[in-house]
Amino acid sequence: MTIFSLYIINKSGGLIYQHDLSPGLAKITSNDALILAGTIHGVFAIASKITPTALKVSKTSGQSNTLYSRSNGGAISSNTSGLRSVETEKFSMYIFQTLTGLKFLLVTSPGGINASSNDINKSAENVLSGVYSLYSDYVMKNPFYEVEMPIRLDLFDKKIVELVNKLG
């Protein structure tokens, strides 16, 4: 799986971060990136509304590391409804939404014929959770960063590239 791009979309659908991670690929314009972010946000919202309500969230007691669990007893993922992935012949797109509504969008090469779909999803989840961890450490802990505003931090960019080289 080759990682092409990473996008971070705020809770109101605005693009706050975009990084092309594969040099040599045709780049989209900043206008197209903004349109992509808004479209993904809208499709995610629609998918969330039409998702069956089988995954009800309830409070748990006695668990120190999780605040909530699914009705089937498993730990909650922050993306329990809505769009999780889009697959085409040319690319695959994976989406991870945090509990605060922030969306991390990963654009990758499509899975190969011999690649297991489950393995690819796990790999994309690993990258996205790593990006979320970096976001928490380098963006949210930066005293000069304003929430919901575009991210312009060189150290964050550097750590993203390191993560992608390590995991991707």
Automatic annotation (TrEMBL):
| Keyword Magnesium in annotation | no
Its source organism is Cyberlindnera fabianii (Yeast)
Primary localisation category:
endoplasmic reticulum
Q: Which Pfam families match?
A: Sybindin
Q: How does it assemble?
A: Part of the multisubunit transport protein particle (TRAPP) complex.
Biological process according to GO: endoplasmic reticulum to Golgi vesicle-mediated transport
User: InterPro entries from the xrefs?
Assistant: Longin-like_dom_sf, TRAPPC
User: Mind naming one GO cellular-component term on file for this protein?
Assistant: endoplasmic reticulum
Report the coiled-coil segments: none
Q: Where in the cell is it found?
A: Endoplasmic reticulum; Golgi apparatus, cis-Golgi network; Golgi apparatus
Per the record, the similarity remark reads: Belongs to the TRAPP small subunits family. TRAPPC4 subfamily.
Ordered alphabetically, the record's keywords are:
Endoplasmic reticulum, ER-Golgi transport, Golgi apparatus, Transport
Q: List, alphabetically, the SUPFAM superfamilies matched.
A: SNARE-like
Q: Which domain of life is it from?
A: Eukaryota
For this entry, the protein name equals Trafficking protein particle complex subunit
